[in-house]
Amino acid sequence: MTQPKTCIVGAGSSGIAAAKVLSQHGLAFDCFEKSDRVGGNWVYRNKNGMSACYRWLHINTSRERMQFHDFPMPRDYPDFPSHAQIAAYFESYIDAFDVRRRITFESEVRRVARRDDGRFEVTVALDVYGASPRTETRTYDAVIVANGHHWDPRWPDPPFPGHFDGLVLHAHAYDEPSIFQGKRVVVLGMGNSAMDIAVEASYVAERVILCSRRGAWIVPKYLFGRPLDTIFVDPRLPFRVRRRIGEGLLKVAVGDLARYGLPQPDHRFGSAHPTISGRILDRLSHGAITYRPNIARLDGDTIHFVDGSAEKADVLVYCTGYKVSFPFFEPSFVRAKDNDLPLFRRVFHPRIPGLFFVGLLQPLGAIMPLADAQSEWIAEHLEGRYALPEPADVERDIDEERAGMLERYVPSARHTMQVDFDEYLVALEVERKRGRARAKASRGVRFARAA
To answer: What is residue 249's predicted lDDT score, i.e. its pLDDT?
Structure first.
């Protein structure tokens, strides 16, 4: 088979995994990154303006669960490194595998379209920050989308009634807590960013209110002196057993959330993405943060809540998540309405051969090792060593995955691509073995390069 050529969109944590794997397999590719460095969301004040990284951000997945399998993080890193350490790790990663020279920096993919012969035309703006940027259109046999899904802010829709006179910002625009100095701050959300921002604000603000639509399970970073995400992660244990163990451990470690003024979750543990914070309960118990339910309406300098209470405020921070966006695709070609894009095992587009997605999933754990495994899978397919199931079987698999997700998780735009870290890796390896067997037996759907 004539070797195919692939375009990789983005050099964040997922894009560099794809670039490294394709390089190791000897596959031809171009990787385009809008910034001047790799790391994507982990680059503080990223030149491309897409990073949601703030000054004091640390990972909430432990170092050993986040690192690439063949490139351990430095042993002198703490269990939960800072964004600067993670960004440095990614820089070391691309140099260790000689990938830097394969990435075209300060280049923006503007358009990806599929030709009638099945190949892809990719329009790229090169030297986008220079005095004379130029645009080129190149042709590829395959496209790997790795543009991330934490850069396009999602705002409340519909907006809350009324108007707020103070400063309004999304968590994506948050940098450091000095903007809250002496202010009255309301933070909307119960995810990791909301907890971090509320905690940081509580040290400098006059008053901090944390509010939300529903409760959440609050997971500490440590249990029994170990990072909690390293305990009871064996995928051989059925989910219902791990759920029961998790609920029991949290009952011991955290106790009744009502004692902190928080609402009880309206769902079982594991039915929504957990909120990992080792500091929020301390600040709540000291009165530095006060909880309120969801916002009802805005009225000048006053925010009214659905329980009838009201608070004067100077700053309103929306920690309301992100939209899954592909600005280089025509919406009629590919889009993720309500953050929902059905894919075969979160990688293969079921109806567009040669179009792959890396890192477009929300794991109960870190994306990086999953992106690495996904990239290996794609490489096998491009080489002709892995064959997909027949189209009807692919569609059936997608339907079953989606049905299981809807049954388990709280209905939300946040839970349209949720996976369990360990179970996903095991299932992916099983499917790769099946696909290799199909390819050897000349069954299934192999990658076909256009003539």
So the answer is: 85
pLDDT score at 313: 98
Tokens of 143: 């496209």
Tokens of 267: 């769902």
Banded pLDDT at 253 (limits 50, 70, 90): confident
Backbone torsion region of residue 179, taken as left when φ is above 0, otherwise alpha when ψ lies between -120 and 50, otherwise beta: alpha
Sign of CA dihedral 57, 62, 63, 65: negative
Quote the strand ranges of 23-155, DSSP E: 28-32, 103-104, 107-114, 120-126, 134-140, 142-145, 152-153
Bridging pattern class, strands 184-188 and 315-318:
parallel
Q: Which residue has the tokens 């692919």?
A: 394
Q: Which two tokens stand for residue 46?
A: 């990223």
pTM, entire model: 0.95
Question: Domains plus CATH for the chain?
Answer: 5-151+322-440 (3.50.50.60), 155-318 (3.50.50.60)
Distance CA 273, CA 44 (A): 24
State yes or no: pLDDT of 161 exceeds 70: yes
Q: Compute CA 298 distance to the chain's CA centroid, rounded to the nearest angstrom.
A: 31
